[in-house]
Amino acid sequence: MALDMLLSLLSKALWQTLQMVALAGVIGTVIGLPIGVFLANSAKGELFAAPVTNRVVGLIVNATRSTPFIILVVAIIPFTRLVAGTSIGTNAAIVPLTIATIPFVARLIEAAIREVDRGLIEAARAMGATRWQIVTKVLIAEALPAIIMALTMTTVSLIGYSAMVGAVGGGGLGDLGIRYGYQRFMPEVMAAVVILLIVLVQVVQSIGDALARRFDKRHREG
């Protein structure tokens, strides 16, 4: 394959991958973050005490997380068609990617919030803080480095998932690797796709690590 054609295919596929990861990541975080905060604070006697709802939401989150991604993609094809108007292509791939992201983010955010010293919540309550103020100024503020790392992990996982949707015509680097690298026996295309994915993951991880260190109070104090 000519170099200029390879570069053209790689740039287009990279843009599709970035589009899928960015949109699914943003939408999944917007929905998953409040779910995670709720799960971390809705057991009996906690800030948003609703134990029954907590268990129901937890079961739904666990059920979605436990479904292998490639099976999820196929299982929700009717829903994907309803939302995106098609079941193939980049826009269609964003639907299952987002659905897979929501429970992933929710559980990671829940874990990050639970690491916050519960004494801080009681202190904020004693000073008359509202529940919303406790969430934004205590829980999220204190857990911010862990939340950043959670979102970094989510983005890295999304890059992997975006490559997997290439198996079902989702577009992006995975689709390019399968159509040219595997089906047409072009190892140079497969190698280029793998290198791009590795670089992309490394860039995301490096940015996430840097941001987490920047917002880590212990790091600043040190």
UniProtKB/TrEMBL annotation:
Domain ABC transmembrane type-1 per the UniProt entry, residue ranges: 14-208
Top-rank taxon: Bacteria
TM helices/strands, residue ranges: 20-40, 52-76, 88-109, 146-169, 189-212
Presence of keyword Lipoprotein: no
Pfam families the UniProt entry points to: BPD_transp_1
Keyword Transport carried by entry: yes
Keyword annotations of the record: Cell membrane, Membrane, Transmembrane, Transmembrane helix, Transport
Family: Belongs to the binding-protein-dependent transport system permease family. CysTW subfamily.
Name used for this protein in its record: DL-methionine transporter permease subunit
Phylogenetic classification of the source organism: Bacteria, Pseudomonadati, Pseudomonadota, Alphaproteobacteria, Hyphomicrobiales
